[in-house]
Amino acid sequence: MKFNIITGTAAVLCGLAGHASAGSGLSSTVTTTAVGPVHATIVALNFDESGGRVNGFRVGSNVLLTFPKPVCGGVGSLGAVGNSVTYSGNSSAYASGFQVVRVSSFTNGSISYTPATRTPPAPYPSTAGTIAQLNYSTQNGAVDGFVFTPAVGAKVYVSLRAVSSTLAALLTAGAPLSVTGTQEAAEPCAAAGTIAEVEASSLTIGGTTYPMRGGLTR
After folding, report:
1. Are the CB atoms for 56 and 64 separated by under 8 Å?
2. Which is nearest to 212 in space by CA: 147, 135, 160, 158?
3. Which pLDDT band, with edges at 50, 70 and 90, does 84 fall under?
4. 96 with 26: CB under 8 angstroms?
C-alpha cells in the first residue's frame, strides 16, 4: 500500500510539472535571429510589472517589441496603438510561437528610437572662475560643494570630498578660484536644469592650492 501511495504521488507531481512547463509557453527551446527592417502596426501597449509604465509594443498577434536601453521620455513616447512603425533587432522565438524582439532601430514617422547614452568621465583641467553659490550637506550642514561659473564655458556643480576649516572660510559666493578635477559621467535622461558635476581634486585660491582628500566633509 505504501508503494502504491508513493508511486501515485510521484505520478501526480510529474504530471503537475509537465502541465506547468506546457502552460508557461516559454520552454527551454528558444531560437534567436536578426530581423528587419520590418513594417508593422502597433496593436497594443505592453506595461511593466507595476502596470503604470509602457515597456514595449505588441505588433501583430504574437510579437512584442522591447527597448533594452533607456529612452528619454519613456518608451511610451515612441508610439501609440494604430501607429505604423518600422523596426529591426534580435528576435527570440519561443515554442509557443510568441516572439520577443530586442529593438536596435525603430522609426515611427518622424520619431526614432535614440537610446540615451552615458557620457564617460573626463578630466576637468584647471579652470578659473567664481563661486555662484554654496551647497550644504544634509547630514551636518557643512559645505560639501558649490555651483561654479567658469570664465569660459557652462556652469558646473563642484563636489568636495572633504573641506578643512581653513578652506571652508575661503569658500564664499562670488569668490574667485580655479578648479581641477574630474567631470563625472552624465546621467542619461537627466532632468531639465541639471548641470554637470565635477569632483574636485584641488582648488586654487589666492595663489594657494588646496588638495581635496578622501573622507567625510568636516
Report:
1. yes
2. 160
3. very high
4. yes
CB 148 within 8 A of CB 141: no
Q: What pLDDT digit, counting tens, does each position of 128-160 carry?
A: 999 999 999 888 888 999 999 999 999 999 999
In terms of C-beta density within 10 A (0-12 exposed, 13-18 middle, 19 or more buried), how is residue 66 classed? middle
**Residues in the chain, total:** 218
pTM, full prediction: 0.57
Beta bridge partners of 59: 42, 63
pLDDT more than 90, % of the chain: 57
Q: What is the pLDDT of residues 171-184, one digit of tens each?
A: 999 999 999 999 98
**Which amino acid belongs to residue 13?**
L
The closest of 95, 96, 78 to 87, measured between CA atoms, is 78
- DSSP collapsed to 3 states, 66-119: ECCCCCCCCHHHHCCCCCEEEEEEEEEEECCCCEEEEEEEEEECCEECCCCCCE
The closest of 41, 111, 117, 37 to 75, measured between CA atoms, is: 111
Q: With CA atoms as reference, report the closest residue to 179 among 158, 162, 206.
A: 158
Q: What is the pLDDT of residue 187?
A: 73
CA 63/CA 54 separation, integer angstroms: 16
Quote the CA–CA distance of 120 and 145 in Å, as a whole number: 21
Between 46-55, 72-81, 89-98, 127-136, the lowest mean confidence (pLDDT) is in 46-55
